[in-house]
Design brief:
25% of the residues lie in helices and 38% in strands. With 96 residues, the chain is α+β, with helices and mostly antiparallel strands.
């Protein structure tokens, strides 16, 4: 899988949320990750997705992205998971 992002946005996210896109790639390897369509921010031209998943570097993370093409992801924003995200992740994990 290939990843891309806007470098200016990456630096902004790193500064404000202390999360670097370059270190989030393993979120897609989390078998318990919750992925969903971000309907509030999607358009007809760009369907955005959110994923809540575990990363080695940061623990539980929320990442917003869209698929440029098959196996090619563009990161939009990311942050450490909020309490409700952690709760949902743990609930989903316990079901398996």
């Amino acid at each position: 899988m290939k990843f891309t992002w806007n470098e200016k946005k990456r630096l902004q996210v790193e500064k404000s949320h202390k999360v670097d896109f370059e270190r989030l790639k393993d979120i897609f390897n989390d078998p318990f990750a919750i992925e969903f369509v971000d309907e509030n921010h999607s358009t007809d031209e760009e369907i955005r997705f959110g994923i809540i998943g575990f990363t080695v570097e940061y623990g539980l993370i929320y990442l917003v992205f869209f698929e440029v093409s098959i196996n090619f992801i563009r990161c939009i924003t990311a942050r450490k998971a909020e309490k409700w995200m952690v709760k949902r992740y743990e609930q989903e994990k316990s079901r398996i």
